[in-house]
Design goal:
2 copies of one chain form a homodimer.
Chain A: H1 7-20, E1 24-25, H2 40-43, E2 52-61, E3 77-86, H3 92-102, E4 112-116, E5 119-121, E6 126-135, E7 138-149, E8 152-164, H4 165-173, H5 189-207, H6 210-229, H7 233-252, H8 258-285, H9 306-309, E9 320-328, H10 333-354, E10 361-366, E11 369-377, E12 384-392, H11 405-414, E13 422-426, E14 429-438, H12 443-457, E15 464-465, E16 472-473, E17 477-484, E18 487-488, E19 492-493, E20 496-497, E21 501-503, E22 512-514, H13 520-528, H14 534-551, H15 560-567, E23 573-579, H16 589-599, E24 603-606, E25 612-621, H17 627-652, H18 657-663, E26 668-670, E27 674-675, H19 676-693, H20 698-710, H21 718-722, H22 729-737, H23 742-750, H24 765-784, H25 798-811, H26 818-828, H27 835-855, H28 860-870, H29 874-889, H30 893-907, H31 924-940, H32 946-954, H33 957-966, H34 974-988
Parallel strand pairs in A: 1-2
Antiparallel strand pairs in A: 2-3, 3-8, 4-6, 5-6, 6-7, 7-8, 9-11, 9-17, 10-11, 12-14, 13-14, 15-16, 17-18, 19-20, 21-22, 23-25, 24-25, 26-27
Helix pairs in contact in A: 6-7, 6-8, 7-8, 10-12, 14-15, 16-17, 19-20, 19-24, 19-26, 20-23, 20-24, 22-23, 23-24, 24-25, 24-26, 24-27, 25-27, 25-29, 27-28, 28-29, 30-33, 30-34, 31-32, 31-33, 31-34
C-alpha cells in the first residue's frame, strides 16, 4: 500500500488537478474570511455573465467553531479548497469525484454520497442549492449551485465546490483527530496549528473586548461605504469582510442579541449588495471583456440546439412497454417524494389527454432518477370523431339552396366537403354540423412535446437553475431516457435530448449503458443493486435494519419518518452497524438521538428496556464491499459529534439554569414586545392566573410558577444554540442538574408540547399551563404588533401556537374560555389589543381549530354548527361535535332537525324577543308545547352537554310537530301571535351556546 | 524552445522544489502583510532554538507602492515566495540557484548577482544582513540572514529567501509589464489584478479616512496588549499586523509626521518584542519539542568537529609559494576593500611574528574571495636563541655551591641542565641566566593557529553570524584554501577545515576544483575570467567602459567612486551598453543619474557637451555570452525605474512649490524645536539679518529671502521622499517650474552645499546665506535641546553642518563673527542657549574647523595659535594660518619668535596690567624700544592681517634683543620696574586677536 498524501501534498494535488481542468489557481485572501466564498475571486467573480474557473486554498476562520484544540474535528480555522466553475460545465459532480481519485481515494472502498444541503449567507445576500458530500458519513465537501449573490440573480449559475481539507486528510491518513494529520513529512497539523487553536479559541470566547470589536465594526462599515461612494469595489469588499469577521467575534462572545443580529446582517447585506452592484456595473463598463475567454477546458457546457439534434421519427407496430427516466443529480428526499406524487397524477392525465391506450403505469424513483414505466403503451392514439357546430342552418344556404360563403368557409375550416355537412337541432335552433374525423397519431409525433411538458411541469419547493437553458428543477437534470420498446422517443429538456443511455451507480463497472430496449431497464438496475421502487427500497431497508437489530438483541423499533427519509437518500441500500464509545451514553438520550438522526440520519439503537445502546445503524448507498471501512468512517464522525455535544454541555454546566435567565435580556422576542426576559415575566403572570383559574393543586401551582421562571432559559445555552430542536429538553436537564423541582423541570420540557403534528400533549398540568401562557402571550402579543400570519408567512410559528393551544385543552379535556384568556394576556402587553385585532386573533385560532377538526374527519356542517357557539372553549366544543356527529347519524335525525328548524325559521328574522306569557296560551297543542318546553328547560339547566339537550329535546319533537300541524302561529290577534312566537323563540333558544343548527345540512 | 512557466505554475514549481528540499509548505496569511516575513510562520518561528524549514506564497501589500496599475513593476500588492531555512543548511545560495533552474532560468544566459542589501524592520525590531539577487540588473529576490527579531538575537540564524514572483515571471516570459504576465493559460496578471491595483491605489492615496484609520490603529494596539496580557501570542500578532497595515495606510496618505512615525514604530516594536518574548517562553515551557525534528533534508548543517577533521601534518623541503583563500558568499563592496586593507597590515605582521622568511606578499580579493599570496615562504621558522633571566645568583646555590631548588626548578622549566646556567650582572644585581635555543618549527605546526586567528581577527562594520560555530564575519565563509605548494596547511574556522578545493564562477564548467598546488591557482582563476587583483579589475573595467563610450562618441568620463564600488561587485567584469527611452531625458539629469548610480550602479553616459545620452553602461559578472539578454533585462529595469520617477514628478507637479510649504508643518524637525515649518520661519529671519550683515546686493537679498521661504519645501514632495539625496535639487526644479526667481531657485539647491566632503560650495550669495542660516539654526537649536553629538552618534548631522558652515565662509572668504551669529540664532529659538551650552556649541564648531585645517595639512601648533584668537571668524583665521605658516617657515623665524617670546614670558604671569608712562623711561635702549613699539603700533592700526603685524614686528626684533641685553627689567625701583613691564606687556599684546604665539613650537 502506498503512503497516503500528507496535508500539503493534498493541496498541491488539488491545485494541479484543477489547473489541468482549466481553472486559474488563485491564492488565499489577505483577510480573515469565514469561507472561500468570501474571497473576491468567488464573491465578485460569480456576478455577471463572464466565464470564470478558479481554484484555491482558503484558510477559513470561524470563531465560534473554536474548541481550544480539544475537539478532533472542529476548528476555529480550517482549510478549505475552493473551486468555482462558471458556467456549469455539465459534469461538475464527475469532475469532483475524479479529483477525489486524484487524491488517492478509491471510491469503490467507500460510501460517497451527495446529501441535500442548501446554503445561504444572510450577510452576503447569497444563496444556492446543493449538497454536502459524505465520505463514509463524514462531510468532506460542500457542493453548491449558486443562485444569487449580493441580492443579484446569477446568470450563468456558478458551481461551487468547497473541500474540507482536514476531513479529507483524516480519511486518507486514517487518523481521526486534526492534530494527528501529517502535514509534511516532518510535521503534523497539530505541530503547526494546535497552539493557534488554543489561543484563538481563548481570544474569541473569553478575551476579545466587546466594545472595541464593535467599534471596529462601525469604522469598517463607514470605510466600506466611503469606498463604495467612490466606486472602489475591492477596498469596500475588504472592509465588508472585516465587518463579517468582527461580527463573528461578537457573536462568539455572546454579545449579539437577536434584533442586533438581524440589524447587523442587514447592514452587511446592504454593503454586499452595493458592492455587487458596483462590480457588475464596472465589468459592464469594460464591456464584459472575459466573455471572449475560453471557458473550462472540458467543453460540456454548450447547450445543443434541439432543432438539430432531434432524429427523424420512427414507426411502431403494436403496444410496447415505455420507459421514461429523468436522470438527475441527487434529489433531496422531500423533492423525490413530491415528484413521484406529481408524476402519479400527471402521467395518467397525460395518457388520457393523448388518447393512448396503455396497461399499468408505474412511477418509481431514487435520488438520481425519476422513472415512469407504462406497460403496453399503444403505438398510436385511438381515432377520434368529433361533431363541430357551425353557422345556423338558415344562414348556410341561400334561397336556391346553394351553400353561402359561411357554410363553405366552415366546411373548409374543418377540412370536409360542404356536401358532408349535416343539420342538427340544438337548444331549439337548427345549425350546420360537421363530423370531424381525426386519425390517431403515433407516439413519436404526440409524445415528445408532452414528455417535455411533463418534465417541465414538475414543481418543487425550491427549484434551481444551472445552465443556459434557464430551466428550473430540484437539482440538475443530466440525462433523459425515453424508450418506446427499442426506439427512442426523442424530446428536449434543459439542453438535453432524450435517448437510450442510462446510468447506474457511480464507479460501478457499468456506470453508463445504452439500453437496447425498455425491457432491459430493470435488469440493468438490478445488476447494479438499485431498487427503483421506493416501497421495495423501504421494505428492504427496514428488513436489513431489523436483521442488524436482532443480531445485537436490540429492540426492533424503527423510526418511520427517518426510514422514509433514508429510503429517499439511497439507490442501493446496505445497512450497517456502527458503534460508539459507551461513555457518550452519559449524555442525554435526546442529544444522542438528535445528533444521530438530524445530522447523520442514523437509526439509534435501543435495548428492550428502551435504553440507548452504544450502536447506530446507517444505510450506505451501494453494496456490501468494504463495509468495515464505511463503518469506521461513520464511527469516527459520530465520535466527534458527540464530543462536540459534550463540549457544549460542559461549557453550559459551568452555570446553573438561573444564571442563564438574565441573559435572556439579550435575546429579543420582538422589538415592540421586548426581550425573552420580558416575555418570561408575562408568562409568569399568566401562569399564575391560569393556575388558579384551572384549579391546579398547590403542588402543581408552585411547580408551574417555578417552571415559568426558567422555561426559556435554555435558549441562551450553547447546547440549544447549536441544536435548537432540543429546546425544553435541555432546559429540563439543566433544571434538574441545578437542583430544581422535578415537576417544574418536566414542565419546562413539556411547555413546548406538542412540538409538531402528532406529538404528544404535556403529561403534567404545570407543563400544560406554562405552555398555554406562552402561546397566549405569543398570539396576543404578535397580533398586537401586526405580526399576524399572512399567506404562507408565519415567521413566529403562530399557526403551531394556536393549534397547540387548542389541542392541549382538548387533550386534557379542560374547559377554558379562550376569549377571556386572550384578554388577560392582552392586558399584560406593552399595548393591549384593539377590539378588532382581538377579534381577528380569536378568529385565527378558531380557524386553526376548525382545520384540526376537519382533518380529524368531522363533518364540515357539524363543526361549523358547534364552533359558531362554542369556539372559545375547545374542549367543550370538541365534545359537542362528537355528540352532534353521533346525533346527526341517527335514523330519526331527519325528524328531529326539521322540527327544531321549523321553530327557528319562523322566528329567526324577528327583530324583537317577545315575552312569553303562559297564561295567554289558548289551544291545547299550544299548552302541550309549553309544558314540554318547560320540562326540557328545567331538566337541561345550565352546564349540560349538547347531547343531553338533544336527548331532552327529542321528547318535544312530536309535540312540536303537532303544534305546527294544528296551530296557526301568525294569528290575527297580535298578542296571541306574539305569545306563540315567544314560545317558539324560547324553543329555538334551547341550543344557544351549544350549537347553531342552522349550519347543519338538512336544516 | 519550451513555453515559459505561467505565474501559477511558478508558484507550484517553487512549492514542489522546496517541499523536496524538506520545507513544510505553508499558506499565505489571513491578514494584510507587507511581506512574508510578517507571517507568523516566519516572524515567530525564527525565534528560539528549534529547527524550522518552511516555504509559502505571500501576497504582500504595500500601500505606498501603489501606482494605479500604471507602473510596469510597482504594485500595491505583489506576490512573494518566502522560504525560511533554520538553521543555515550550509549551502542556501546554491539551493536558491537550483530553484531558479527549476523554474527554467538558465543561469548561463543571464547575469545573476548577489548585491549587498541589508534588511531592517523598525516595527518588528528585526534586522539581518544579505543581498538583493539581481537577474540582469533586476532585483528578483531578497536573501537575508536574520540576526534579530522582536529585539531578540536569533540562535540559530535563519536564512530568509524572498522571491519577487512578478519579476521572475517577467524575466521568464520576457514581458516587462506586470499586466502582461501570463497567470494561467487563459488569463493574464492584468486580467485578474489590474483593477485591484487601480482601486487600492486610489483608496490608499486619496480615499482612506485618516481619522478612522488612526482610530483603528489605536483599537488594534489595545487589543494586542490585551491579548498579550493573557499570554495569547497569535491573536496579539494578528493585531500587530493590523497595526502595521494601518500605519502604512496613514503613511501613504501622508498623515504621519516624523515624530509620530518614530512613536508609532516604537509602539509596534514594543508589541513585537512582547509577543516574541511570550512566544519564546511558550516554546520553552513546552520543552522546545521540535528540537527533536529532522532539520532540512540536505544535511549540510552539521558543524564538523575540527579535532577529527584535521589531517596529520606534513613536511616541506624548501621555500614554497603559499596560498590562503577565504571563500565567502558575496561580500559588500566596502567590506571587501576594508578586509584587503586589514590583511595588508595583518599578514606581514603575522609573518614577522612567526619568523617565517618570505618573498613578496600580495593581498587580493573579489566579492567571493579574500586571497593572500606569499612568494617563497620558508617551510620552517628561523631558529631562535633567547636569554632568560632566572633567580638571583646568591639564592641559586647553597653554601656548598650546590644548586638550590630555585635553580633546579628554573633549569627544568627552561629545559636545560643546571650546569648550563650562567651568571650575569643585570642592573647591578647578579642573576642566573639560561640561554634557550628554539629550533624553528615547520609551517604545518605554526600556521594553522595563526591562519585561523588571522581570519577571525578581520573586523567589519556590520558582521553577522550564520551557523552553530557562532563566529561573525561580513558574510558567511563557505570554503577555505590553504596551500603550501602542493600541501594543505589545515586550519579550522567557522566549522570549515581548509583544504585545496576552490570555486570559480557559479555555473561555470568547473565551478569547483581541487588545486594540485598553489601555483595552479591563478591560472584557474584566469580560466574563469576572474580578476582577483582589485587594481587590475578596476583598470579592466575602466578600459571596457572607455571602449563603449568611444563606440558611441560619448564623453570619456568615469565616476571614480562608482568605479571603485563596481570593481568590488564583480569577479569577472564585462561592461555592456544599454539604452533607454529618449523621452526620459526630459527628467532632470540629477534624477536620471541618481537612479542609475544609486539603484543600479550604472555608469551614466554624457555627450561631449556634458548632456546625458539615452544610454548607460553596466558591468556584469561573467563573460560576454548572451550579453544581449543581460542588456535587455537591464534596459527594462531602468525603464521601470524612470517611469517611477516620472510618476513621482507628475504627482508633485500637480502642485506649486508654495503648496508644499504648509505641509512642512507635518514634518517634525525636533519635538522641542517644532516642525520644519517653524524652522523655515527661523531661517527666514536669520537670512534677513545675515544678508544685511554680509552686505548682500539688493537683488541677492531679496533672492535669499525668497529662497529661505521654500528652501525646505521639497522635503514633502514624493520625489524627495523617494530619493532623499535629491533634496534641494528637486526644490530648484519645482521652484523654477512654479515661476520663481532663478537666483532663488539656485539658492534652494545650493543652501545644502557642500553636501559631502569634497563637494563644492554655493556659487551664489543667496545660497550661501540661506545655508548659513539653516546650519546656524540647526547647531544652536539642537545644542539647546541637548542633542549635541556624542561619541559616534550624530543623528542630525551636526558635524557636517559645522564643517559646511566653516568651509563656506572660508571658500567665499567672508569674515563673519560666528559667536555673534550663533547668539542671533539662539535668540530665535523657543528657549535660547544657556551660556555654557553656547560655549560648548562654539567649541564644537571650532573642533571641526581645527580638524579641517589639520586635514588640509597645516601644522598643529600654527592652527592652535591662530584659532586661540580667531576661531570665531573662520575666513580670517584661515588667512592668518596661511600667513603664519609662511612666517614659521622663514629662516629668521628662530630669531623673531624668541624675541617676542621674551616679552611674553616675563609678563604673562602678572596679575596686573601696568600703565605705560613714556616719561619714566630712563635708558636709551628702553626709549628705543618704546619708539619702535609706537611706530609698529601706529602702523598696524586695527583691521590688519597677522602677516602685516609680523612684517612690522620684525623691525622691532633687534631693538627687543638690545633691550634685554642691556636693561634689567626687574629694577629695584618699583615704578621703574612696573613701567618697563608695562612696555613689554604692550608689546606682548601686539598679537592679541591675531594669534597666540605661545602655542607655537619653539616658543
Amino acid at each position: 500500500m502506498h503512503n497516503p498524501l500528507n496535508f500539503q501534498s493534498i493541496m498541491l494535488a488539488l491545485e494541479h488537478f484543477w489547473a489541468e481542468k482549466g481553472c486559474l489557481i488563485w491564492q488565499p485572501y489577505y483577510s480573515q474570511v469565514g469561507a472561500g466564498t468570501m474571497n473576491p475571486a468567488t464573491f465578485l467573480r460569480v456576478l455577471g455573465p463572464e466565464p470564470w474557473n478558479v481554484a484555491y486554498v482558503e484558510p477559513s476562520v470561524r470563531p465560534d467553531d473554536g474548541r481550544y484544540g480539544d475537539n478532533p474535528y472542529r476548528l476555529q480555522q480550517h482549510y478549505q479548497f475552493q473551486v468555482i466553475l462558471k458556467p456549469d460545465p455539465g459534469n461538475p459532480q464527475e469532475l469532483y469525484l475524479q479529483s477525489l481519485q486524484a487524491l488517492g481515494i478509491n471510491p469503490l472502498e467507500h460510501d460517497i454520497r451527495f446529501v441535500e444541503d442548501n446554503w445561504e449567507s444572510p450577510a452576503l445576500g447569497a444563496w444556492g442549492l446543493g449538497w454536502e458530500v459524505w465520505l463514509d458519513g463524514q462531510e468532506i465537501t460542500q457542493f453548491t449551485y449558486f443562485q444569487q449573490a449580493g441580492g443579484f440573480n446569477l446568470e450563468p449559475v456558478s458551481v461551487e465546490i468547497t473541500y474540507g481539507l482536514e476531513r479529507i486528510a483524516m480519511a486518507l491518513q486514517g487518523c481521526y483527530n486534526f492534530r494527528k494529520i501529517q502535514w509534511s513529512p516532518d510535521y503534523t497539523y497539530g505541530d503547526v496549528n494546535y497552539q493557534a487553536e488554543k489561543e484563538h479559541s481563548q481570544y474569541y470566547f473569553e478575551t476579545a473586548n466587546i466594545e472595541r470589536v464593535r467599534e471596529m465594526f462601525r469604522l469598517y462599515e463607514e470605510e466600506a461605504n466611503l469606498a463604495l461612494d467612490k466606486g472602489l469595489v475591492l477596498p469596500a469588499h475588504d472592509y465588508i469582510l472585516k465587518c463579517s469577521h468582527n461580527f463573528n467575534i461578537l457573536d462568539t462572545r455572546g454579545a449579539v442579541g437577536v434584533t442586533e443580529r438581524q440589524a447587523m446582517f442587514g447592514r452587511m447585506r446592504d454593503l454586499s449588495r452595493r458592492s455587487a452592484e458596483a462590480y457588475i456595473a464596472q465589468r459592464e463598463g469594460l464591456g464584459f471583456p472575459w466573455l471572449q475567454k475560453q471557458t473550462a477546458a472540458h467543453g460540456h457546457n454548450e447547450i445543443p440546439d434541439p432543432q438539430l439534434s432531434l432524429p427523424t421519427h420512427q414507426k411502431a407496430d403494436g403496444p410496447t412497454d415505455f420507459l421514461l427516466e429523468i436522470g438527475t443529480e441527487e434529489l433531496p428526499a422531500a423533492d423525490l417524494e413530491n415528484a413521484i406524487q406529481q408524476l402519479e397524477q400527471l402521467v395518467p392525465a397525460l395518457l388520457d389527454d393523448t388518447r393512448l391506450e396503455h396497461g399499468e403505469v408505474k412511477v418509481l424513483g431514487t435520488p438520481r432518477r425519476l422513472v415512469v414505466w407504462i406497460n403496453s403503451l399503444a403505438p398510436t392514439q385511438a381515432d377520434l370523431t368529433q361533431k363541430v357546430k357551425g353557422p345556423p342552418a338558415d344562414k348556410a344556404f341561400d334561397k336556391e339552396g346553394a351553400p353561402t360563403p359561411a357554410a363553405i368557409g366552415f366546411a373548409r375550416g374543418k377540412g370536409i366537403d360542404v356536401k358532408d355537412l349535416k343539420k342538427e337541432e340544438i337548444d331549439g335552433g337548427v345549425y350546420l354540423m360537421a363530423e370531424v374525423h381525426q386519425t390517431g397519431r403515433s407516439v413519436f409525433e404526440t409524445l415528445p412535446e408532452k414528455l417535455a411538458g411533463l418534465t417541465a411541469n414538475l414543481r418543487f419547493d425550491k427549484a434551481m437553475r444551472w445552465n443556459a437553458s434557464g430551466v428550473a428543477f430540484s437539482r440538475p437534470v443530466r440525462w433523459l431516457v425515453s424508450l418506446f420498446g427499442s426506439q427512442v422517443i426523442p424530446f428536449e429538456y434543459a439542453g438535453l435530448t432524450s435517448g437510450r443511455e442510462t446510468r447506474g451507480l457511480r464507479f460501478s463497472e457499468k456506470e453508463t449503458t445504452a439500453l437496447k430496449d425498455s425491457g432491459e431497464y430493470f435488469s440493468f438496475l438490478e445488476s447494479q443493486g438499485i431498487l427503483a421502487d421506493p416501497q421495495k427500497r423501504k421494505e428492504e431497508i427496514a428488513s436489513q435494519v431489523a436483521r442488524l437489530q436482532t443480531s445485537i438483541k436490540a429492540s426492533p423499533d424503527v423510526d418511520d419518518s427517518l426510514l422514509a427519509e433514508v429510503t429517499n437518500l439511497v439507490e442501493a441500500p446496505t445497512a450497517l452497524l456502527g458503534n460508539f464509545n459507551q461513555g457518550h451514553l452519559l449524555l442525554p438520550p435526546e442529544v444522542l438521538v438528535g445528533v444521530m438522526k438530524k445530522h447523520q440520519r442514523y437509526f439509534p439503537v435501543r435495548d428492550n428496556q428502551g435504553k440507548l445502546m452504544a450502536h447506530f445503524i446507517t444505510v450506505r448507498n451501494g453494496g456490501s464491499q468494504h463495509l468495515e471501512v464505511v463503518a469506521h468512517g461513520n464511527e469516527e464522525v459520530i465520535e466527534a459529534r458527540f464530543a462536540d455535544a459534550a463540549f457544549f454541555m460542559q461549557e453550559d454546566n459551568k452555570h446553573t439554569i438561573d444564571d442563564f435567565i438574565p441573559r435572556l435580556d439579550t435575546l429579543i422576542f420582538h422589538p415592540k414586545l421586548g426581550s425573552m426576559l420580558d416575555k418570561t415575566g408575562r408568562i409568569i403572570k399568566l401562569t399564575e392566573s391560569l393556575s388558579k383559574q384551572l384549579n391546579l393543586s398547590q403542588e402543581d401551582q408552585s411547580a408551574a410558577l417555578e417552571a415559568a421562571r426558567f422555561c426559556k432559559a435554555d435558549l441562551v445555552t450553547k447546547m440549544v444554540v447549536e441544536m435548537t430542536a432540543l429546546q425544553g429538553v435541555i432546559g429540563r436537564y439543566y433544571a434538574l442538574k441545578s437542583g430544581k423541582n422535578a415537576l417544574a423541570a418536566q414542565a419546562v420540557e413539556e411547555h413546548y408540547y406538542p412540538r409538531y403534528s402528532g406529538d404528544s400533549a404535556p403529561a403534567s398540568m404545570p407543563g400544560l399551563v406554562v405552555g398555554l401562557a406562552d402561546r397566549l402571550d405569543s398570539l396576543a402579543g404578535l397580533f398586537s404588533v401586526g405580526m399576524a400570519p399572512s399567506g404562507t408567512k408565519d415567521p413566529f410559528g403562530l399557526r403551531r401556537a394556536a393549534i397547540g393551544l387548542v389541542q392541549n385543552l382538548i387533550d386534557k379535556n379542560i374547559s377554558m374560555d379562550l376569549q377571556q384568556s386572550l384578554s388577560d394576556a392582552s392586558d399584560l402587553l406593552p399595548a393591549p389589543l384593539k377590539p378588532e385585532v382581538m377579534r381577528a386573533c380569536s378568529e385565527f385560532i378558531t380557524g386553526r381549530f376548525e382545520n384540526l377538526l376537519l382533518e380529524e374527519g368531522f363533518k364540515h356542517d357539524v363543526v361549523r354548527a358547534v364552533l359558531a357557539e362554542q369556539a372559545h372553549d375547545p374542549a367543550a366544543a370538541q365534545h359537542a361535535i362528537c355528540e352532534l356527529t353521533e346525533w346527526t347519524a341517527r335514523k330519526d335525525w331527519g325528524e328531529i332537525l326539521p322540527s327544531y328548524a321549523r321553530c327557528v325559521r319562523i322566528t329567526r328574522d324577528l327583530k324583537e324577543v317577545f315575552p312569553l306569557d303562559s297564561g295567554r296560551l289558548l289551544e291545547s297543542q299550544e299548552k302541550d308545547l309549553y309544558n314540554a318546553f318547560e320540562k326540557v328547560r328545567t331538566s337541561i339547566g345550565t352546564d349540560v352537554s349538547l347531547g343531553v339537550c338533544l336527548t331532552n329535546f327529542v321528547e318535544m319533537v312530536p309535540v312540536i310537530n303537532s303544534f305546527f300541524n294544528t296551530i296557526l302561529v301568525m294569528d290575527k290577534d297580535q298578542k296571541v301571535r306574539e305569545n306563540r312566537l315567544a314560545l317558539l323563540q324560547a324553543i329555538a333558544g334551547l341550543f344557544i351556546g351549544k350549537a347553531d343548527f342552522s349550519q347543519l345540512e338538512g336544516f
